[in-house]
Design a protein that fits this description.
This protein is of the alpha/beta class. It is built from 4 helices and 5 strands. The protein has a 5-stranded parallel beta sheet with strand order 4-3-2-1-5.
Length: about 120
């Protein structure tokens, strides 16, 4: 990540399955910024790391009968948002790399924060 340009917007996602109604807004903001040609990174840490597990985001619905968190994540990614997982948080949540729904960059905070902190804007969600 140190080789990439500083993003325009970073969303450090801490909210996880414990608060599903809070999640869609983070993905909408990220997708909208990326659709407007901004470089956007979402860094999943703490409880948010659980959302990266196989089948987890597909099983969480912020609104009964509505879209799943996986649908909101896909919207963000389809618009160019880069998702990065916190390697340290995998262990915190009893997960390994094999538990992830797909391959993605995984970084400890100490290696991710220099670039993330250089972003034009950083939001913690």
């Amino acid at each position: 990540m140190s080789e990439m340009e500083a993003p325009d917007l970073v969303i450090i996602l801490i909210t996880g399955p414990e608060n599903p109604k809070r999640l869609p807004s983070a993905f909408f903001l990220a997708a909208t910024a990326a659709a407007n040609e901004q470089r956007v990174v979402m860094y999943f840490t703490g409880p948010a790391t659980e959302l990266l597990a196989k089948g987890k985001a597909e099983s969480i619905f912020p609104m009964p009968g509505g879209k799943s968190v996986a649908d909101f994540m896909k919207l963000a990614e389809d618009n160019g948002v880069q998702i990065i997982g916190c390697l340290q948080s995998l262990e915190l949540n009893g997960m390994t790399k094999e538990d992830l729904a797909k391959q993605m960059p995984l970084m400890n905070p100490s290696s991710a924060l220099p670039t993330l902190g250089a972003a034009g804007r950083v939001l913690t969600w």
